[in-house]
C-alpha cells in the first residue's frame, strides 16, 4: 500500500513539474486592436509563442480572440518581431477556416485559399514576385456568396461585399483591369480606380466630408520625412549609453504608432537590453520629428511600426 502511495505521489509531482515547465517555456502577450502589446486589463487578442525561452531557428505562435478561440497559427523566424515563414492558417471566431497560405520570409508565396465565414469556398489566389521584385497576387478563381464562380481561370467580373466594405471590377489574366469602384462603410468613403494589366494608374477616394484624395499607390507605409537613413542617424547620435553599460551589445525591439498626423506615439519596448538604455530609446521616439503618415487609398491612418535598434558595445 505504501509503495502504491509513493508511486502516486511521484506521478503527481512529475505531472505538476511537467506542467510548470511547459508553462515556463511559452510566452503569452496581450495585444490591442492595433496588434500592439498592452495589458491584461485592456486587450483584444492574445498571442502564445511556443518554447519562447528556448534558442531555436523558428517558433510556432498562435493568436487567439478575446473569447479564447484560435484566430491564427503560423511559424516565425524571430520570437520578438514576427517574420512569418512556412504554412499559416487563419480562423473565424466560429472555428471555420478563413484562409491558408505559405510564407517565405514574411512574403506570401504560392496558392492562398480563402473561405466565407459559413465555410463556403471564396477564392484561390497565387502569390509570386514580379519583375520589379514586388509581391504580386493573381486571382485564379473567386466565388460569390451564392456559390457562383464569377472569376474563372483568372478572368471575370470580381464583386465582393462584407460588413465593412465592398469593391468590384474586371479581372483579366488574374489581375485588375479597367475601372474599379468600392466603398468603406465604416469611414463612409468611396473610391474609383483605373488599372491597366494589374498596374494602378490612378485612384481617387471621396471621404465622408466629400473631400477628394488622389493617389497612385493603394498602401503607403509610414516613413520619416527625411528618409529612414536620416532617422537611423538621429537615433544613433542621440542614444545615451551609461558608462557602466559601454560594453553591452544586443538589439532593442520597439514598436510605436504613427498617427494620422505623423506623430510618433505609444512607444513600447518589446525586448530590451536594460541599463536604462530601453527608457532612453522610448524618450527618443517621443522627441522625434513627425513622419509621413501611412495611407490607404490616399487617406491617412494610424499605423503600427516596428523598429529594431542595434546596440554595439565598445
From TrEMBL:
The keyword Plastid does not apply. Residues 1-22 form the signal peptide. One of its GO terms (molecular function) is energy transducer activity. SUPFAM superfamilies: Histone H3 K4-specific methyltransferase SET7/9 N-terminal domain, TolA/TonB C-terminal domain. Keywords: Signal. GO terms for biological process: transmembrane transport. This is Antitoxin component YwqK of YwqJK toxin-antitoxin module.
Amino acid at each position: 500500500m505504501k509503495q502504491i502511495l509513493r508511486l502516486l505521489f511521484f506521478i503527481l509531482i512529475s505531472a505538476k513539474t511537467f506542467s510548470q515547465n511547459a508553462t515556463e517555456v511559452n510566452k503569452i502577450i496581450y495585444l490591442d486592436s492595433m496588434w500592439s502589446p498592452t495589458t491584461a486589463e485592456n486587450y483584444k487578442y492574445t498571442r502564445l509563442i511556443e518554447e519562447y525561452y528556448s534558442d531555436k531557428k523558428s517558433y510556432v505562435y498562435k493568436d487567439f480572440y478575446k473569447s479564447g478561440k484560435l484566430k491564427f497559427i503560423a511559424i516565425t523566424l524571430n520570437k520578438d518581431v514576427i517574420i512569418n515563414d512556412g504554412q499559416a492558417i487563419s480562423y473565424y471566431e466560429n472555428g471555420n477556416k478563413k484562409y491558408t497560405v505559405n510564407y517565405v520570409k514574411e512574403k506570401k508565396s504560392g496558392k492562398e485559399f480563402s473561405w466565407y465565414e459559413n465555410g463556403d469556398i471564396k477564392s484561390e489566389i497565387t502569390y509570386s514576385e514580379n519583375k520589379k521584385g514586388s509581391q504580386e497576387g493573381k486571382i485564379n478563381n473567386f466565388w460569390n456568396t451564392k456559390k457562383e464562380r464569377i472569376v474563372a481561370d483568372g478572368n471575370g467580373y470580381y464583386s465582393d461585399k462584407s460588413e465593412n466594405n465592398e469593391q468590384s471590377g474586371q479581372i483579366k489574366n488574374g489581375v485588375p483591369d479597367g475601372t474599379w469602384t468600392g466603398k468603406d462603410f465604416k469611414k463612409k468613403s468611396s473610391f474609383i480606380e483605373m488599372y491597366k494589366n494589374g498596374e494602378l494608374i490612378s485612384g481617387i477616394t471621396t471621404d465622408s466630408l466629400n473631400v477628394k484624395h488622389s493617389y497612385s499607390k493603394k498602401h503607403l507605409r509610414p516613413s520619416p520625412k527625411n528618409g529612414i537613413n536620416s532617422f537611423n542617424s538621429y537615433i544613433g547620435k542621440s542614444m545615451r549609453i551609461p558608462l557602466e553599460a559601454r560594453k553591452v551589445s544586443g538589439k532593442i525591439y520597439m514598436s510605436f504608432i504613427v498617427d494620422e498626423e505623423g506623430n510618433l506615439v505609444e512607444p513600447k519596448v518589446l525586448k530590451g537590453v536594460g541599463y536604462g538604455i530601453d527608457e532612453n530609446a522610448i524618450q527618443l521616439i517621443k522627441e522625434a520629428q513627425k513622419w509621413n503618415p501611412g495611407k490607404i487609398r490616399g487617406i491617412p491612418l494610424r499605423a503600427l511600426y516596428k523598429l529594431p535598434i542595434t546596440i554595439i558595445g565598445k
